[in-house]
Amino acid sequence: MNDPLERMLHRAHRAELLSLAQLLRVNPDGLGLGDLARILAGQVRRIGSHGIGNVARGGHGRPYELVLADAARERGITPGEPEETELALARSWFASRWEKATPEERERVWKDLGLEDAPPEAAAEAAGVARERLGRAFDYAVTGLTYVIRPIGWLAVGSLFLTPLGCLARPVLPLFVPYFAWRALRPSPEQVGAVMLEVARIRQRVLHRVTIGVVGSPSTGKDAGIKALFGIDTGNISPIAGSTKEVAIQRLPGATALFIVNTPGLGDVMESVTEEARQVLDHIDLYLYIVNAEGGVQARELADYQRCVATGKPVLALVNKVDVLRARDRDRYLADARGKLGAVEDAFLPVAFDPLPQLAPGPIGLEAVHAWIAGQLVALGKDPSELPALPTPAVPVAPSPPPSAPESP
Questions:
Q1: How far apart are CA 138 and CA 135, in angstroms?
Q2: Which pLDDT does position 251 carry in this prediction?
Q3: What Cα–Cα distance (Å) separates residue 22 from each residue in 25, 30, 398?
Q4: Residue 212 phi, psi (nearest 5)
């Protein structure tokens, strides 16, 4: 996989490629993620190249960087690195659409950006205000706005000759056939621009969108973990079993696109959630699976953990409430839990998200969890800066003391 565009598309979720497939008129049925990414990358290269040139290149089209550079120059933009060029195109489109939009359309775009007050009339002022309020999330939000281009095909060109003026021109039509053939084989700037913006949207989601699934049986400490790790108070931290009744999806305040999914399990939940929630579950990038040290690994825990692993996404097993374990029993208990789950050593950590005050001054083991998440994000091609700083001082897991020597008689 030497094509950078194909590699980027391959890091997206398959469902995120369907809009690009529709725009390029590629039928995705029966295609896995790898094949769909390869076909779409090839089609993007071809649509941005002249048809005659594509034939000369064996149908492969030009490199994406050249196609993108041409699309940028079409709008008076000096091309640079692919991501920055795509974002410059998105900003240019935002400005041009804003100037032509009706007040009602501007209000809709403003709300789509997550802004509630009255939108400015001037495009420059609107972009400035939105960027100031959204920060780095501005580009992410702009690439997510709907951009629709109605392709102009042979029907539109041919219909010119069905008009009365076109009938008078029929005798000289053969003289114009080479010209129309050349024009038909030349890429449309509007179509190419629409494709570039769709690629930009996918790239921003690949880079910034992070969805972390927090899974575990009731009363394992998922809500306390979400608060300790991400600073989100779910208002649902409760020792009552079953307090989390359904999937809860929360966007982390201040992050571009960091989503936390809180679910009691992946068994019955997957069959009872809405279609919207199921799509979010399908897009989870990595899992934190939490086991209660006081309850241990039972049949339900093992089944849910194996469901997480079966998704093919990275899974970190966390044994919560290790503060209540006796120091002399901790290592044996943790080895037993890891063995029952079948978890690898570097994806298994002891933690205490809400320890008893008399046993620990603060949460235990959070740095190790953050380090694991950040490493996985880098491996997935994500931006690890999406992760927030630890909101509270954390306490490392204290090693078990060595067995004491027998006393002298």
A1: 6
A2: 77
A3: 5, 15, 55
A4: -110, 120
- pLDDT for 37 equals 93
The number of beta carbons lying within 10 Å of the beta carbon of residue 378 is: 11
Please state the pTM of the whole predicted model: 0.69
Residue 184 has what pLDDT? 46
Residue 179 to residues 50, 74, 163, 247: CA-CA distances in angstroms? Answer: 14, 22, 20, 59
Give the pLDDT of residue 155.
31
Burial 85-97 (b: 16+ CB within 10 A, else e): bbbbbbbbbbbee
Q: Identify the pLDDT of residue 262.
A: 84
Q: What is the largest CA-CA distance in the chain?
A: 121
Question: In the chain, which stretches have pLDDT less than 50?
Answer: 51-58, 147-170, 172-173, 175-177, 179-185, 238-244, 399-409
Structure tokens at 285: 């990038």
**Are both 201 and 222 inside the same structural domain?**
no
Strand order in the sheet with 210-216: 248-251, 258-263, 210-216, 286-292, 315-320, 348-350
CATH number at residue 310: 3.40.50.300
Instruction: Read off the tokens for 45.
Output: 């290269």
What is the domain count for the chain?
2
Q: Are 210 and 20 in contact (CB under 8 A)?
A: no
Structural domain that includes position 118: 4-151+188-205
